[in-house]
Amino acid sequence: MQLEIRNLDVSYGRIRALHGLDFSIDKGEIVCIIGANGAGKSTTLRAISRLLPPHRDSTMTFEGHNLLEFQPDKVVSQLGISHVPEGRRLFGNLTVMENMQLAAFARKDREKIKEDTEQVFSIFPRLKERVSQMAGTLSGGEQQMLAVGRAYLSGRRLMLLDDPSMGLAPLLMLSMFEALREINRQGTTILLVEQNARLALKFAQRAYVLENGRLVLEGLSSELLNNPEVQKAYLGG
Amino acid sequence: MDLFLQNIVNGLQWGSFYALIALGYSMVYSILMLFNFAHGDVFMVGSYIGFGVATALLGLAAATGLPIPGWLILVLTILFSMFLTSFVGMFIERVGYRPLREAPRASAAITGLMIGIILETGNLAILGARRLSFPQLIESTTYQLGGVFVTNKKILIVAVSLGLMYLLHRFIQKSKWGMAMRAMSFDFQAVPLMGISINRIAPLTFAIGSSLAAAAGILYGLAYPVLDPYMGILLGWKAFVAAILGGRGSILGAALAGFLLGFIEIFVAWIFPSTLRDVIAYSIILLILTFRPHGFFGQAHSTQLRL
User: Would you call B252 an interface residue with chain A, using a CB distance cutoff of 8 Å?
Assistant: First the structure.
């Protein structure tokens, strides 16, 4: 197991958001968590990135490291877990290139950074045309490309993606998932949470269903796609 | 006309102090969204550190008999004091503000005020109430250009201030660390997701702001050689006004507004009795802020996303 989450409890103040989540991911897998708005999908990713503190009895291990001992920036720079957050959170006052340089800020391997930057441009040629443009002026699709490109540069052992299809036109969505599949082929494990359940289940190998902060179902994506309950609740009948 | 130009020159010098100090307020605000209300006192501490360094260097020159010229001592004093004062800034960040990052902004503001009082009274306790006279490291020469009198100190003060501002601008626009500071000013919560520790960017920002305040403190000592522990209060508050006037978090705005404040004060004092200077000058600024509540280059931050 590359990532192992046991009994993950997270609260916002007195409001409990996650109730004892248990799940794990193998190296090289594509796993998705589907669920309704407010089910706790983003909260789960943010807990893994250490942006939110879990309760005392929760454990999270990544490649043998206790995640709880790492600060958010070290999760990225030392463990190689990148996070494409909800809303993308690009630095709109910086150029596309600067956003990418910033993603490699903590890295020392100059040659490899150059190589990886070229790799990002080959996955998303559109970004290369826009290198000196302010990130805030990019279209929604380009912004998502840059957000994923940044993640590619900042940490590539595990990539956490929060609603990557959000706000994208159907055609762009498909090419985005094609790009993610390519990144996965190069060795990055992917954990994504999605509102677009159909898309996510077609993309991922395994899936979990999150309801009100609890994992209620898990299985191969193909099984869940054919599960009548999942179809009724998440796939529009 | 000559008098007008004379006041422009005087305003440039006076505005340099405000601009240098205002930059520190603005830089910290832009990345952490808090005003470091101890910053005026950091200016005071910087001036005292400058005094100490200059005195030590003069003593060293006298003891060794080396003919070190005054300008060299001044350059060394500025550089060394900026370096030392940057640690004061980093210390304030570490001890005063870092533990309060999740706390309401009011707590941080109050903490800043308390740190300021500690710096003032601490200085009083250590050095006593007697005022110190800043050593005059360079001989004052007056040049007459047309009907305008310019001293070499005035030229030096304005030149050093503008030079430091230019360096700051280059640093923020061109360096990797400056880039991280710009990113942090846009969305500080997203910075850790890039693998960058806020606990490295924040101290750096305090260090730079404090070193600029130290430079201002030494330049101020050259122009007005009397130091006392409370010298940073009024100047600090006025520089804070400049930071607001420039637009919260705007570096360019802080520098421009600092100079504007200097001009307004000097020109008001030229036209009106000098006892009315601040009343009239700050009424004007109040009026400006009524029409531009976010200052010249400020933006309302209410739209910023939360992670």
Answer: no
